[in-house]
Amino acid sequence: MNKSVVDDLKTKFGPVEFHTGPFKTFPGNWFLLELKPMPLNSEINDVTSDICRNGSVKVNKGKVKHHLDNCDRESHSFSSKLRHVEKIISDLKDEKYYIAVHPGDENILNGQL
Description:
24% of the residues lie in helices and 22% in strands. It is α+β, with helices and mostly antiparallel strands. Strand 1 (16-20) and strand 2 (29-35) form a beta hairpin. The chain is elongated and about 50 Å long.
């Protein structure tokens, strides 16, 4: 994997760990990204509203953030059809996720990557 690709991973997702495989079903070596993508409480309504309207959001160090610089919406309220989404947001938990990225470009996993 090219150094600029690794640097880009670090910029977008924060620290990455390199793990030597093979894992149970994945051959080779992998970069493992640890993410907690939940937006800040102060931004969660704005982020969710933008996602529901196919708007842009920003990812920085694995966190989803409101794309304030390019957001042209005056209001981030939910339409009557999406009121249930607003209620669900308050129940969301800040979960940790792991994403494995293979550093090579060979035909890994039968061409799935």
